[in-house]
Amino acid sequence: MTSINSTDTQTFTAKVATPTTRLVGALALVSMAWVVLGGLIVTPRDVNQGDAVRIMYVHVPTAWVAYLAFIVTAIASACWLIGKKHSMGFDRVAGASAEVGVVFMALTLLSGSLWGRITWGTFWAWDPRLTTTAFLLVTYIGYLAVRGLGGSIEQRARRSAVIALLAVLEIPLVHFSVLMWRSLHQKASVLSGDGDIKMDGSMLTTLLVGVVGFTCTFAWLVMHRQRVLAMQDSMQMTQLDAALRERANESKEVK
Amino acid sequence: MDHAAFIAAVYAVTFSVIIGLVVRTVLQGRDLASKVADKDKPWT
To answer: Which value does ipTM take for this structure?
Structure first.
């Protein structure tokens, strides 16, 4: 641990990583390298889609991580609301997870759009899966906007927790949209429920490694982002304390 | 490879965005960590 600055009682260490985050980061790096190599070179062409199937190794894991991120946001928000101590750690995990989820949801829409251009001949269609996914993205952008509104840290946590618990209800709508309505988007290939996975071994392995790699990336990002949020909150509280002390001193001088 | 430009674009954009997010997070974390006292950083 390297101390770059110190006062009489406080030390300031410019480190955010821990052995756990390093391990998760290393796992993510190895998995991602596998996805690039496997997705672009090792795996065979699909009998129907040809090389376009290579987009699947990125598109499916990003969609999975986006869902996971929003579910984590909802669980952390529920923990904050239910918990007697209202631990701000839960609120920060919720916020960090939503930030990462929004990025991965946007990447899902982008990769899906390019895949759609190849297979459907268009970048965008007002299809149930695409429309509900875009709606989900906009909802969580709104969630992040609400987190950025003024007020105390507790006010931020309370209002965003309520929104997170409502917003997560959209996920089943998105996931089952291909079953509930007629859709251009294909139905689930791996999680179809019948246990019959019609996919080549190397394709399935690369897809699963992709899911693991993107999940590790998500975990790494959330751990680091929630630490960044914790430090931002700490600085905000320090600045608030300093402003209150200054105000108190001013009032003493007037008297 | 058919549709190589589309496939390359998907991989390039996805991994560029993720790397950008990681770099931004690391830099922001280091910057804040040098300003916030260790007592407010339970992981140190």
So the answer is: 0.92
